[in-house]
Amino acid sequence: MLNIYTKSFEELTIQELYDLLQLRSEVFVVEQDCIYQDIDGKDQKALHVMGYKAQKLVAYTRIFKPNDYFEYASIGRVVVKQEARKFQYGYAIMKASIDAIEMHFKEQQIKISAQTYLKTFYNNLDFFEVGEGYLEDSIPHIAMIKSN
Prior knowledge:
This protein is of the alpha+beta class. It has one domain: Aminopeptidase. Helices cover 27% and strands 36% of the residues. The protein is built from three helices and seven strands. The protein has helices spanning 14-31, 89-105, 119-123, and strands at residues 3-8, 47-53, 56-64, 73-80, 110-115, 128-136, 139-146. Helix 2 (89-105) links the parallel strand 4 (73-80) and strand 5 (110-115). The chain is globular and about 40 Å long.
């Protein structure tokens, strides 16, 4: 089971910030072999949802209220450490992120920009495709919406 915490940018410790940036870089830049600017100036507006196992950050997302990223509340930078994926922590961190949006922002509609190969994963969480696919940082993506 994951221990999940949600914090604003200002509440993050230096170590937590370092750990989440390291995990994002490990997966999005190194594992996916994608050169892009992860530090995009949006972390300061986000709430950070962090999943820990044995005091190690293994899962993470950042969430936004409506109009801070998309017109709807949104979840982004969804990441699970490679060796932890077999435990289905992706579902746990996403469910915690959905709950955090409902609790902090009182929102039911959530938009994500999903990597296309993860469409079924997000369908299982009641997200459904909208519009055409597109390339984001040279990786196929699709917009998806969840409405409760």
